[in-house]
């Protein structure tokens, strides 16, 4: 269950990063641009070496391609979409951790924990806003 939450946070983080990229020259309308943007973000926080950068780009590119493929399911079967999304997030997270060294993994996990806390706060705010409207 923790892995599912962790992976959900990672995907949310990547989507937030894409949304914040207004000053970037990276074209976020392509999967390559999205993958590059995420790799740049991870590089900034984790200080990746060249080999890690190349591997991370492959991981992110594949994740973006798979994410794009499951978008079709989102409209027809929400439950299946959620399962596939969780599976994709777990796979991506596992592959990312395999590329990182021990120190980078610790930083990465802390970053994910912080994002998960922010997500919980946002969810609570949404729920409280809905309750006050009713």
The overall pLDDT, averaged over residues, is 81
- What gyration radius follows from the Cα positions, in whole Å? 16 Å
Structural class assignment = mainly alpha
Strand content: under 5%
Note the overall shape.
globular
Please indicate the count of domains.
1
| H/E element sequence | HHHHH
Helix content: over 70%
Sheet having the most strands: none
Count of DSSP strands: 0
Number of helices: 5
Instruction: List unreliable stretches of 5+ residues.
Output: none
In whole angstroms, the N-to-C terminal distance is: 31 Å
Describe this structure in words.
- It is a single chain.
- With 134 residues, the protein is mostly helical.
- The protein is 87% helix and 0% strand.
- The chain has one domain.
- It has helices at residues 2-20, 31-46, 50-76, 78-99, 102-133.
- The longest helix has 32 residues, at 102-133.
- The protein is globular.
- The N and C termini lie far apart (31 Å).
- 18% of the residues are buried.
Task: Spell out the key features of this protein.
134 residues, mainly alpha, 5 helices
């Amino acid at each position: 269950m923790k892995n599912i939450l962790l992976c959900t946070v990672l995907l949310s983080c990547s989507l937030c990063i894409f949304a914040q990229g207004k000053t970037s020259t990276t074209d976020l309308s392509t999967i390559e641009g999205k993958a590059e943007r995420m790799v740049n973000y991870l590089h900034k926080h984790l200080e990746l070496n060249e080999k890690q950068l190349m591997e991370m780009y492959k991981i992110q590119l594949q994740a973006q391609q798979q994410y794009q493929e499951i978008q079709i399911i989102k409209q027809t079967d929400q439950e299946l979409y959620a399962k596939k999304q969780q599976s994709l997030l777990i796979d991506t997270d596992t592959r990312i951790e395999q590329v990182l060294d021990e120190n980078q993994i610790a930083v990465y996990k802390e970053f994910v924990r912080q994002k998960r806390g922010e997500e919980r706060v946002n969810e609570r705010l949404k729920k409280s806003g809905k309750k006050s409207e009713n």
